[in-house]
TrEMBL record, chain A:
Binds 1 [4Fe-4S] cluster. Binds 1 [2Fe-2S] cluster. SUPFAM superfamilies: 2Fe-2S ferredoxin-like, alpha-helical ferredoxin. It comes from Isoptericola halotolerans. Keywords: 2Fe-2S, 3Fe-4S, 4Fe-4S, Iron, Iron-sulfur, Metal-binding, Oxidoreductase, Tricarboxylic acid cycle. This is Fumarate reductase iron-sulfur subunit. Pathway: Carbohydrate metabolism; tricarboxylic acid cycle. Residues 158-180 form the 4Fe-4S ferredoxin-type domain. CDD domains: fer2. Its cofactor is [4Fe-4S] cluster; [2Fe-2S] cluster; [3Fe-4S] cluster. The lineage of its organism: Bacteria, Bacillati, Actinomycetota, Actinomycetes, Micrococcales. It is an enzyme of class 1 (oxidoreductase).
TrEMBL record, chain B:
It is a peripheral membrane protein. Its main location: membrane. Residues 463-611 form the Fumarate reductase/succinate dehydrogenase flavoprotein-like C-terminal domain. It is found in: Membrane. Residues 7-408 form the FAD-dependent oxidoreductase 2 FAD-binding domain. Belongs to the FAD-dependent oxidoreductase 2 family. FRD/SDH subfamily. It catalyses: a quinone + succinate = fumarate + a quinol. This is Succinate dehydrogenase flavoprotein subunit. PANTHER family: SUCCINATE DEHYDROGENASE 2 FLAVOPROTEIN SUBUNIT, SUCCINATE DEHYDROGENASE [UBIQUINONE] FLAVOPROTEIN SUBUNIT, MITOCHONDRIAL. It comes from Isoptericola halotolerans. Its EC number is 1.3.5.1. Its cofactor is FAD. Keywords: Electron transport, FAD, Flavoprotein, Membrane, Oxidoreductase, Transport, Tricarboxylic acid cycle. The lineage of its organism: Bacteria, Bacillati, Actinomycetota, Actinomycetes, Micrococcales. Pathway: Carbohydrate metabolism; tricarboxylic acid cycle; fumarate from succinate (bacterial route): step 1/1.
Length: 256, 611
């Protein structure tokens, strides 16, 4: 399944690169700089944008032309590196994958850091707790016995079994959209479970029991309340909630 | 300032850096310093595949792969290095699979393989299925798999640390070093973005794996963070940069945006068409058509547009047609890139052709190394303890034009080799070599000068001007006039750079400051690129001079070695520069001097390059 943005038909009409007229857009950004103040404040900036511009382009415009101190992470700028997850109009998205015209640019677009992780500065959060959870679920292939001299044999059907969860880019959009994670930062969170799923259902892997043990913890999969926020937030279109359910089921049936 | 001591320090945590780390950390105390979280590295954006002659789906062998790589690079490839890469490709792919990489599979459950540009059976007969792949996110899976194994092996990372200086025991910019004399790399100086502190890393061996420099161009598939840091640091410390005039323009960037659409789209049957609907590649490369190497396809596309057969309202792009492919096939093999077309251009590739145009993609040149990954300080002397691998390096397996998938191969083969060499070397060194008393002084002065400059031009303005002149004057088609224009612009921009200022004067997470520092790297890399391009009065691979449209093996079957030297340095013609090319470009404070290095040939005589 691919993630398709809303308004595709409208977009198709003006899909010609550069053929769309420019428009004004206001970003209402949550600013926080501990070197200046302990209080976070809302700040508005208006810039001129073009048809195919994304929220990241507007943020860059502000940073490069108006206020160099505006701070956010970004790298690839096309939705594969996972640097720029942020809360845009109340929903977690990647700034580089969200076209301005798709988030109603007629009203100010709110941009905040993702929730549940400590804010470092402006839109930058401390990702360490997130990666720590990821590392805990043993996110690597576990095998025993002699290594094959060639590749491991795996049928395409077995390969397809965990295809969806291999798409994860560790952007934290899912984990930081989860109400359970907001109230309990100890919860492993959807992203860690997605990455456990990726190995638990890999026919080559022999570490499923260990991972299920880890996720059977009181901060593990059972905390999931199936609100589907994570699935909705995932910029890669991963069916996150489904993956979590599959891990829960594997915990009970021990079939994987 | 904090100081650290390691046996091996690796700069960069993309594919090359992490592959090196997996090797080095087995036998040496290793740290990886990266300006990004490792999984953010741009290896993750690579799509189509990684070639290796596994022969899982049809007859193939590594010797054919070697030949294709050499021919694809228009014979400027060092043939010993290409042989190493093609031969070790097989184990590199198998290593990754055993590390957990989820490759697509054949009906027998082996690693599946598909066609890719320039990869052929039996020296050019027809396209061969050689690219091992995981849908169209092979790079993503490589990056994830390597990071996962780094977690498994408990590799130590310093994330969001920017390396801003290389420490050596001799100043190569000013000292006249004898042939055979020992020069050592002793450490690096890094800046911790989160705290604003400088850290000095003393190391017995250092591996540069900092990636490319695509941001010297405006239209590029590269990440914002690909600013040529490692190349520029080496260059500033007096080391040469090799073959920087050769930059690859990937044929299929999303028009107007430069976002990459993998060559796998054509490997899976996609066709390029002009405004008349014509499959124009039949005219330019009659045998392998749309699967010709990238330099040829990019030039053909640009030529179609120049001759008025471009599509769209401004006739400024061509079309990538996938509409004859089954939607299910597209979903299975090309899910990500078709989603890019939908997301960014609102185009549905099932039913509409996708607007594409060449996008700056890959630096064939870089920091010169030998096949062990050791960095050269001229045509043949190595810098002890300094290694480089991946796009930052030039070994040279890509010559004047890299074949698709060979970069993922390069990072795995030479990442592993450099990691192994660095650890082995570190084990022979008993004591860390002394570093200067205040090793961070240069970096701290540079940072505070930039931060404290009260007002001046914005960084973004200078960067934009640089990227625009590079796109206009040093892209697919080049002439002496266009390159002289670019050189003049860069001279002017280097001056303007001295007066840029940043608005963020803070200490914590100051990305404004780092963008200013990165702009300095970009200007230096653009400078070398243009000077080397001016000097090479021939057309070869990715470097096409309209005023010299033919390859000239008599005068230019040589690698370019560009050195930055003080204006007061002795005249290069006196023998101070190995293989001196009669070309010096004065930039006021310093000059760029061009030397050369012979191309290693083993068994392939240069031939005319036809597809």
């Amino acid at each position: 399944m691919t993630a398709v943005l809303e308004n595709t038909t409208e977009a198709a009409q003006d899909g010609q690169a550069g053929a769309v007229a420019s428009f004004e857009v206001t970003l209402k950004i949550r600013r926080y700089n501990p070197e200046v103040s302990e209080e976070a404040v809302w700040e508005e900036h208006t810039v001129t944008a073009h048809g195919t511009d994304r929220v990241l382009d507007a943020l860059h415009k502000i940073k490069w032309e108006l206020d160099g101190s505006l701070t956010f992470r970004r790298s690839c700028a096309h939705g594969v590196c996972g640097s720029d997850a942020m809360r845009i109009n109340g929903r977690n998205r990647l700034a580089c994958k969200t076209l301005l015209k798709d988030v109603n640019p007629d009203k100010p677009i709110t941009v905040e850091p993702i929730k549940g992780l400590p804010v470092v500065k402006d839109l930058v959060v401390d990702m360490e707790p997130f990666f720590a959870s990821y590392r805990e679920i043993m996110p690597f292939l576990i095998t025993s016995g002699n290594e094959p001299s060639r590749e491991n044999i795996q049928s395409q059907a077995d390969r397809d079994r965990f295809d969806d969860t291999t798409k994860c880019i560790l952007c934290a959009a899912c984990t930081s959209s989860c109400p359970v994670f907001w109230t309990d930062g100890q919860y492993f969170g959807p992203a860690a479970i997605v990455n456990a799923h990726r190995f638990i259902f890999d026919s080559r892997d022999e570490g499923a029991t260990q991972r299920l043990e880890i996720l059977n913890d009181k901060e593990g999969v059972w905390r999931c309340r199936t609100t589907f926020n994570c699935t909705e937030a995932c910029p890669r279109g991963i069916e996150v909630t489904k993956a979590i359910q599959e891990v829960k089921r594997a915990m009970i049936t021990r079939a994987f | 300032m904090q100081t650290h001591q390691y046996d091996v320090v690796i700069v960069g945590a993309g594919g090359a850096g992490m592959r090196a780390a997996l090797e080095a950390s087995k036998g040496a105390r290793t740290a990886v310093i990266s300006k990004l979280y490792p999984t953010r590295s741009h290896t993750g954006a690579a799509q189509g595949g990684m070639c290796a002659a596994l022969a899982n789906v049809e007859e193939d062998n590594w010797e054919w792969h070697t030949f294709d790589t050499i021919k694809g690079g228009d014979y400027l490839v060092d043939q010993d290095a290409a042989e190493v890469m093609a031969k070790e490709a097989i184990d590199a792919v198998l290593d990754l699979e055993r590390m957990g990489l989820p490759f697509n599979r054949t009906p027998e459950g082996r690693i599946d393989q598909r066609r890719f540009g320039g990869h052929t059976r039996n020296h050019g007969e027809a396209a061969v299925r050689r690219a091992c792949y995981a849908a169209d996110r092979t790079g993503h899976m490589i990056l994830q798999t390597l990071y996962q194994n780094c977690v498994k092996q408990d590799v130590e990372f310093f994330n969001e640390f920017y390396v801003l200086d290389l420490l050596t025991d001799h100043d190569l910019t000013t000292e006249d070093i004898e042939d055979g004399a020992e020069v050592n790399a002793t450490g690096v100086v890094a800046y911790d973005l989160a705290s604003g502190e400088t850290h000095v890393f003393q190391a017995k061996a250092i591996i540069f794996a900092t990636g490319g420099a695509g941001k010297i161009f405006k239209t590029t598939s590269n990440a914002h963070t690909l600013t040529g840091d490692g190349m520029a640091l080496a260059y500033r410390r007096g080391l040469p940069l090799e073959d920087m005039e050769f930059f690859q323009f990937h044929p299929t960037g999303l028009a107007g945006l430069g976002i990459l659409l993998s060559e796998a789209a054509r490997g899976e049957g996609g066709i390029l068409r002009n405004s008349e609907g014509e499959r124009f590649m039949e005219r330019y490369a009659p045998t392998i058509k749309d699967l010709a190497p990238r330099d040829i396809v990019a030039r053909s596309m640009a030529n179609e547009v120049r001759e008025g057969r471009g599509a769209g309202p401004n006739k400024d792009y061509v079309l990538l047609d996938l509409t004859h492919l089954e939607p299910a096939h597209i979903d299975a093999k090309l899910p990500d890139i078709t989603e890019f077309a939908r997301t960014y251009l609102g185009i549905e590739p099932y039913t509409e052709p996708v607007p594409v145009y060449p996008t700056a993609h890959y630096a064939m040149g870089g920091v010169p190394t030998n096949i062990k990954g050791e960095v050269l300080r001229d045509g043949h002397n190595v810098v002890k303890g300094l290694y480089a691998a991946g796009e930052v390096a030039c070994v040279s397996v890509h010559g004047s034009n890299r074949l698709g998938t060979n970069s993922l191969l390069d990072i795995n083969v030479f990442g592993k080799r450099s990691g192994r060499s660095a650890a082995a070397y570190a084990q022979t060194v008993e004591q860390h070599l002394p570093i200067p008393e205040n090793p961070a002084a240069r970096v701290e002065a540079q940072l505070s000068e930039m931060r404290d400059r009260p007002e001046g031009e914005r960084v973004a303005e200078v960067r934009k001007a640089l990227q625009e002149t590079m796109d206009a004057n040093a892209q697919v088609f080049r002439t002496r006039e266009s390159l002289e224009q670019a050189a003049a612009d860069i001279r002017d921009l280097q001056k303007r750079y001295k007066n840029v200022s940043v608005q963020d004067k803070g200490t914590l997470f100051n990305t404004d400051l780092l963008e200013a520092i990165e702009l300095g790297f970009l200007l230096d890399i653009a400078e070398v690129t243009v000077v080397a391009a001016l000097n090479r009065r021939e057309s070869r691979g990715g470097h096409y001079r309209e005023d010299y449209p033919d390859r000239d093996d008599t005068n230019y079957m040589l690698h370019t070695m560009a050195y930055r030297r003080p204006t007061s340095a002795p005249d290069a013609a006196d023998g101070h520069v190995e293989g001196y090319f009669d070309h010096v470009e004065d930039f006021g404070d310093y000059k760029v001097v061009l030397g050369s290095k012979t191309v290693t040939q083993t068994r392939y005589e240069p031939m005319e390059r036809k597809y």
